[in-house]
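# nightly structure sweep
# worker-07 picked up a monomer target from the shared queue
# config: single-sequence mode, recycle default, output format = structure tokens
# input follows
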Amino acid sequence: MNSNTLLIQFLQQELAISPAEIDVLLHHPEQAHAPLPMLLWQYGLITLQQLTQIFDWLEAQL
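# output follows
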């Protein structure tokens, strides 16, 4: 599995982000210029605390 697939699984399982919300952002024009977690936060789909949780998770994956 690639890192993006693992991130999406984390978002769905741990933060209950719907597949539809993720799909919309993956096809959003800004997605090429901004990381998915930032877009989720920018569009109000996650809180700042959840954004921090995502970044902590991403750091642990390295």
